[in-house]
Protein: LysR family transcriptional regulator
Organism: Candidatus Enterocloster excrementipullorum
Amino acid sequence: MINFLNLEYFLVAAEELNFTKAAKRLYISQQSLSNHIANLEKEFDVMLFNRTSPLTLTYAGQALAAKARQILDLRDETYQEIQDIKDFTTGQLSIGVSHTRGRFILPEILPAYKSQFPGIELHLIEGNSSQLAASLLHGDIDLMIDLLPLNVENVETIPICQEDILLTVPDKVLDEVFPGRKEDIKNRLALSPDLKLLADCPFVLLKKGNRVRTIADEMFEDSQITPRIVLETENIETVLSLSCTGMGLTFYPKMFIANDPFSRSGLAALSERFELNFYSLNYARAHGTLGIGYHKGHYMSRATHEFIRIAQERIPRRGSGQ
């Protein structure tokens, strides 16, 4: 009968292809690791490693490595399902979300979740969309929060709320670029936020590669203008801070605005304090849907079910500004 511990140790050795490094990673002696590998080789009556330098997997070792992870995942899912059936008093949940989005979304979900399910151990994994997608695909996280559609195979998604990108226009810039015409320009932008009208204005933008910047570049191209970019940054909060000083126009997700990003009062307070104007854009990709994704091929624990339920209850209500 296959020993799960032997399989776990074999997988680490197969990843490292070095018994010394694998033993250190497992906090066991090299001799102990060799014994576990030898037990597996005796179980299957094959050699799993070519004892060469560097170490390599035999064909049988490659076949076992491909199946071992599936066997261990199935074991973990079985234990998890049985624990859920038992009493749901203990468990764990791993959540993947971007650094910035997590700051605004998780405070709406996690306190309520922890209050209802104090026995569930929460793990937060932060990263960009591609990193989180890889983590979800490999089973390192139970779910991820991101804009739909998610670029991951075999994933089910549940929409949570809208995430709109707004055009942010400081009064200071309008006074400088359109002396004596500020109110007229603001009225025109309120009717239709035409970027051609703002072609001579300075812009503070995120660096290329960010979704908000990609959408901004698409709108610039559609409007056939080359923006006057005075600064680029990788931090989305920095662009808003600089726009507040009047340094330039920018694009910013409505959800991230002010201390209470889910209420209209946050938007209004920011507008009044810094003399900023926010305009909804006439561009389809500036209006996205935030959702939760989970791997449909994996067992969904009750911990995951309950997290999704609470998110569905709290985020849309807050996001509507009501």
User: Anything to note?
Assistant: The chain is about 50% helix and 20% strand. Residues 258-265, 318-322 have pLDDT under 50 and may be disordered. The first helix runs from residue 4 to 16.
